[in-house]
Specification:
By secondary structure, this protein is an alpha/beta fold. It folds into two domains: 278 residues, Ribonuclease Z/Hydroxyacylglutathione hydrolase-like (Metallo-beta-lactamase, Chain A, 4-Layer Sandwich); 32 residues, no CATH class. Helices cover 31% and strands 24% of the residues. The longest helix is centred in the first third of the chain and has 23 residues. The chain is globular and about 70 Å long. The structure holds fe (ii) ion. The site of fe (ii) ion has 7 residues, from helix 3. Fe (ii) ion binds next to helix 3.
């Protein structure tokens, strides 16, 4: 009897210990706001167009910079013009090591040297790397002066980054880095970028996943498949779809894959997606194709829309006041405030 009572008590204690955790788990946000800071097409003549990609993502109170574009001076100009303070970020995601995505790092690190930066882990990569001291073959018959580290290598060999002092956090496999925030890690097997590693950002929302891709070198098909394994409801994909030189058949196949196979609800393509691909995807998606040129601010909720268009469509009086004061003070958090409505 005593034993049975003790067992019951133990079971109850274990359950009670779990309950507060279950109760405390916050619901995922319903939306994210994406601002395109860097691209080679756009409507705003005050911004500088250049080949590359960078976007600010506001999600659940966090400010995330995804990629840094091609040129530090262009990133600085566009961020300043858009009133985006790159000194106030929770973290950065570098999708891959190509210059048109990481060229702006020099500006970012000049104003925000300690910001955590997630980057793909590559052997001897520009973001740094490490290997266990056991990785190379040993020959104990050699005299010590002919052996690496005199025959006693450190447990871990650390390799330098191109930006010493930066807080790189290297990601090797798909990882949930914070509640609702996933980094999808894949390796390209395509000719020209074989072995290139790339991270894509997947955000859980009440409407499904919001996916931000840099250049999709491993293939958007593989990225979307990995995203669908997190949540089969892919709500929106923004960024570079890497069909800039694709032929019409490949572009048509991409449209079918996204629209019919994965039933991705909305697209906001940019960067290396390609001009004929913009046309084709716009035809397939109609109103669910969101224009995402340089300077676009997209509110990705149940019914995604450009933030600027909301003024006419559905801002209430409080929203309009907040939006006007945000514009007057130049506080880009005003947009984040709006996103919470
Ligand atoms: Fe690119």
């Amino acid at each position: 009897m005593t034993i049975r009572f003790s067992l019951a008590l133990c079971a109850w204690s274990a359950l009670a210990a779990l309950l507060p955790i279950a109760r405390a788990a916050p619901p995922v946000p319903d939306e994210a706001v994406i601002t395109v800071i860097y691209d080679a097409f756009g409507q705003d003549a005050t911004l500088r167009k250049d080949w590359g990609y960078a976007a600010l993502i506001e999600y659940g109170g966090r400010r995330i910079l995804f990629d840094t574009g091609n040129d530090p001076a262009v990133l600085e100009h566009n961020a300043r013009t858009l009133k985006i303070d790159l000194g106030r970020l929770d973290f950065v995601v570098m999708s891959h090591r190509h210059g048109d995505h990481m060229g702006g790092l020099a500006h970012l690190l000049a104003i925000n040297p300690k910001v955590p930066i997630y980057a793909p882990k590559e052997g001897f990569g520009v973001y740094g790397a490490d290997l266990p001291g056991s990785f190379y073959r040993k020959d104990a018959t050699l005299p010590a002066e002919r052996r690496y580290y005199h025959g006693a290598p450190p447990a871990t060999l650390k390799f330098g980054a191109a930006w010493p002092g930066a807080d790189f956090r290297l990601i090797e496999e798909t990882t949930r880095i914070a509640p609702g925030i996933h980094l999808i890690a894949l390796v390209s097997d395509k000719a020209g970028t074989r072995e290139l590693r790339e991270l894509s950002l997947a955000l859980e929302t009440g409407n499904g996943l919001v996916l931000v891709v840099g250049c999709s070198h491993p293939g958007l098909d593989r990225i979307v498949a990995a995203a669908a394994a997190i949540d089969p409801r892919v709500h929106l994909i923004a960024g570079g779809f890497h069909h800039v030189t694709a032929d019409d058949a490949a572009i048509a196949a991409l449209g079918g894959l996204l629209h019919e196979q994965y039933r991705v609800a909305y697209l906001a393509p940019g960067h290396c997606t390609g001009e004929p691909t913009f046309s084709a995807l716009a035809r397939v998606y109609g109103e669910r194709y969101l224009y995402a040129g340089l300077g676009s601010r997209l509110r990705i909720g149940a019914d995604p829309a450009p933030l600027a268009a909301l003024g006419a469509r559905r801002l209430d009086a409080g929203d309009r006041l907040a939006y006007r004061s945000a514009l007057a003070t130049g506080d880009d958090h005003g947009h984040a405030h709006l996103a919470q409505h």
